[in-house]
Design a protein that fits this description.
Helix content of chain A: 25-40%
Distance between the termini of chain B: 38 Å
Structural class of chain B: mainly alpha
Largest interface: A-B, 58 and 49 residues
Structural class of chain A: alpha/beta
Order of helices and strands of chain B: HHHHHHHHHHH
Strand content of chain A: 25-35%
Radius of gyration of chain A: 23 Å
Largest sheet of chain A: 6 strands, mixed
Largest sheet of chain B: none
Strand content of chain B: under 5%
Shape of chain A: elongated
CATH superfamily of the largest domain in chain A: P-loop containing nucleotide triphosphate hydrolases
CATH class of the largest domain in chain A: Alpha Beta
Number of helices of chain B: 11
Order of helices and strands of chain A: EEEHEHEHHHEHEHEEHEHEEHEH
Number of helices of chain A: 11
Oligomer: heterodimer
Strand order of the largest sheet of chain A: 5-6-7-3-8-9
Helix content of chain B: over 70%
Number of domains of chain B: 1
Number of strands of chain B: 0
Number of strands of chain A: 13
């Protein structure tokens, strides 16, 4: 069954077209990441799906019904940006109150444990840090035991450790069949969590596939090399999309973690370590060797999500 | 910060609560309302400056102006101290309407709490009903405290019948003026609500005779007063305490029968209710634009 069906969604604010004709269907049990830069239309898209914002045209159905139907709201949890809670209530009281709104609910203590808020159970909302507020927002989103969970930039205020733990929580929900749609611009978050990634840019979907396929759909490959060739020379190689100098020849490799292999050689002269995005790595390497340039370390890899993302939103040009 | 706990299968025993309507809140409407009222009262109690402003001020005003006049008798035998209990309690009711319903709701609206609530299956009537129910409880509390001071500090004679009639009038007023506050909450910008609330509150209280006898006001204010719902509310409240002659002696106005005053309060409720409903719908619509 399709839990989310959005057809032809459009939304304009003044002269800004926030969402420009988005179609999206999400079946039960899928974890979908809406990935896009700031201002891409992610929040507007989520708010339209939740029935909180009226599309200029197009329509949304959740579980086959209008999103503002009470029966739909009873099955949906939402973690929103820019909303606050009653400041004088404690964490436990806020979560227990929200639980009352739903026809079924989880045990409040269990929800606080899941949101890592047990230690803050008796703390008033106005004494919470930004990250703790975000986790309270997550607790409020899950306490109604939703079938469909919307998370808008859920880890924006979390540190790395809390962010990873949060991913585990969300993954746990997905494993038991909860459908999750989250907006993010953290590539690692998308790669760790999503079954599917929908890349949104300027209000349009520019890619919609599994994270692996989105990365693979980008024709560029990542070349990491240590060479005495100049950056200008590398930029002139066939198929070069972007070149980044990431250090000198003697320093530690600063490329994508763990992907650079081979002996740590030294290159004489003005050698440097580079990352290149190339649409035809074989041809580029052939020409580089043919030009007599010394190449001491060479790794060719598929583009990662970040490269794919930058490419898809048109920011992958030669640096 | 410690990491969140690792995921486990969530127990499904609680799903039995879903029996019945698929959108019915846990515990039903009564349970929901009770939880919402509890939350309102907790918030009120935990903000001391709020309690002092809403509950303390009428008591302090009575201590300042009521105790010194207690013991004086009106021709029908009513103690002026009892009339002033009614005056400052009526003042508190209007204060509750404007500040609890108006300024507080505007603040919650500004912080996005109402926006979040609209995402949940909670019917919004529960939110507004809980505010009114909490205000009714506060009205009773204020009335009891002012009476306690009147009896304890000045020996004002307490008669059950008039006291209950007055309390009834106060509770009617609390409900009648609630939509005035809700209207303020949704028609004013959240940051302007407190200033507008004060602009409304003080003139309404003065011109309706809660602070000083209407007969002592300038003629132009006395002419305006009968067009204010708070004026009719005051007459209804004083009429609960004392016979018409004493009310006229106390305030310079013949209160007349209670029915027109009740009609005024009903009309106030309906008029401001319609205005508040329109403001709420406009706010919800703007939020969706």
């Amino acid at each position: 069954m399709e839990y989310i069906q959005a057809r032809g969604l459009r939304k304009t604010y003044g002269t800004t077209r926030a969402v420009d004709g988005i179609d999206l269907s999400v079946p039960a049990g899928q974890v979908v990441a809406i990935l896009g830069p700031n201002g891409a239309g992610k929040t507007t898209l989520i708010e339209m799906m939740l029935g909180m914002r009226r599309p200029d045209s197009g329509e949304v159905r959740l579980f086959g019904e209008r999103p503002d139907a009470r029966t739909v709201k009873a099955r949906v949890g939402a973690m929103l940006q820019d909303t606050d809670v009653p400041q004088a209530l404690t964490v436990t009281e806020v979560v227990a109150l929200v639980r009352r709104y739903y026809p079924r609910g989880l045990d409040v203590a269990d929800v606080l444990r899941r949101a890592d808020l047990t230690a803050k159970a008796g703390t008033r909302a106005n004494q919470l840090s930004g990250g703790q507020r975000q986790r309270l927002s997550f607790a409020m989103a899950i306490v109604g035991d939703p079938d469909l969970l919307f998370l808008d930039e859920p880890t924006a205020a979390l540190d790395i450790e809390a962010r990873r733990a949060f991913w585990e929580q969300v993954r746990g929900y997905a494993d038991r069949g909860v459908t999750v749609l989250f907006a993010s611009h953290h590539m690692a978050e998308v790669e760790a969590l999503a079954d599917r990634v929908v890349v949104v840019h300027r209000g349009r979907v520019v890619a919609d596939d599994t994270p692996g396929q989105v990365a693979a759909s980008v024709v560029t490959r990542r070349i990491e090399l240590v060479t005495d060739a100049t950056q200008l020379r590398l930029e002139g190689l066939p198929g070069t999309v972007a070149v980044r100098r990431i250090g000198d020849a003697a320093g530690p490799v600063a490329g994508a973690a763990g992907r650079v292999a081979g002996a740590a050689g030294r290159v004489a002269g003005a050698a440097g370590r580079f990352e290149m995005d190339s649409t035809s790595p074989e041809e580029a390497i052939r020409e580089l060797f043919g030009s007599g340039a010394r190449v001491d370390r060479l790794v060719v890899a598929d583009a990662d999500m970040e490269t794919a993302f930058l490419h898809l939103i048109g920011e992958g040009e030669v640096a | 910060m410690s990491p969140m706990s690792t995921p486990t299968v969530i127990e499904t025993a609680d799903r039995t609560a879903a029996e019945g309507s698929p959108s019915r809140p846990t515990g039903g409407p009564v349970g929901l309302l009770a939880a919402q009222v509890g939350a309102e009262l907790r918030q009120m109690v935990r903000v001391p400056e709020y309690l002092v402003g809403i509950v303390g001020v009428p008591v302090i005003l009575y201590a300042m102006f009521g105790l010194s006049n207690a013991g004086q008798r009106l021709p029908g035998g009513t103690d002026v101290g009892a009339m002033l209990v009614a005056s400052f309690s009526a003042y508190a009711v209007v204060s509750l309407a404007i500040f609890t319903f108006g300024v507080d709701v505007a603040a919650e609206r500004g912080r996005g709490w109402l926006r979040r609530l609209r995402c949940t299956p909670m019917p919004m009537w529960a939110y507004f009903a809980a505010k009114i129910a909490a205000a009714l409880l506060l009205t009773v509390l204020i009335y009891v405290l002012v009476w306690a001071l009147a009896i304890g500090a000045a020996g004002v004679p307490f008669e059950v019948g008039p006291a209950v009639r007055t309390l009834g009038a106060l509770l009617v007023g609390t409900v009648a003026f609630a939509p005035m506050g809700f209207g303020l909450a949704f028609l004013a910008r959240p940051k302007a609500a407190a200033a507008i609330g004060n602009l409304l509150f003080l003139p309404l209280s003065f011109v309706s005779g809660f602070f000083t006898s209407l007969s002592s006001l300038p003629q132009i204010l006395r002419d305006v007063a009968p067009y204010l719902p708070t004026y009719h509310f005051g007459l209804l409240v004083w009429g609960g305490v004392a016979p018409a002659g004493d009310v006229q002696r106390f305030n310079g106005i013949d209160p007349g029968p209670a029915a027109p005053q009740l009609v005024w309060l009903a009309a106030t409720f309906l008029l401001f209710g319609a205005l508040a409903a329109w403001g709420y719908a406009r706010d919800a619509r703007r939020e969706r634009e």
